[in-house]
User: Fold this.
Amino acid sequence: MEPIPLTQSEFAPFGTVIECPLKPSLTTFPTPPPTSSNVVPANQDTALKFIDVTYMKNHYDSAPSGIPAKAVMNMFSCYPRPLRSPITKNKYDFSISDVTVLERHPYTTQTFIPLGAARDAKANYLVVVAPTLQPTSGPPFSSKIGPPDLSKVRMFWAHGGQAVTYGVATWHMPMAVVGEERMDFVVVQYANGESQEDCEEVRVVPGMQEKL
Assistant:
């Protein structure tokens, strides 16, 4: 599989892409200001506020333990993943990377927000997702049902100007940075401290590869 650029239209079945629609060259407050319902002037006309760019969802009231969750914010410093058989693409060396693990957070959304990474930085990240196979019986979000549908895995190429929210219970690959530099992310989600309710993982059989 080869990744395609991350866009909201392509990623919509799996979550939300957060990306500023303004051109980087816009350095002064626009006159007249936008009149859209989801963007309003703010801070004495020195900022534009984009409303509801993503949604946090908490479904822990469905968790078996009954333990309530709280909103948590962590930071991940992610280093470039090792690749096999390097080739040159877009001035950087990329190659083949194996998908070995997929995970999901059964009762919460999860948002990754890159810190200080430019759109043209020497590092990017991959967003790898898969839909859930429909269960034949049993309650929703059970670890015993609903594995990822590996025949419909999607792969996206994201840059430092994009954040991403995985929908509740969306299967995804753990954060994968590629390129030459580390990327730091603030990660926002709900959690209750019960490991099996906060995160489920599956091992992927050998043979699934990313062509980068």
About this structure: Residues 65 and 194 are 8 Å apart (CA to CA).
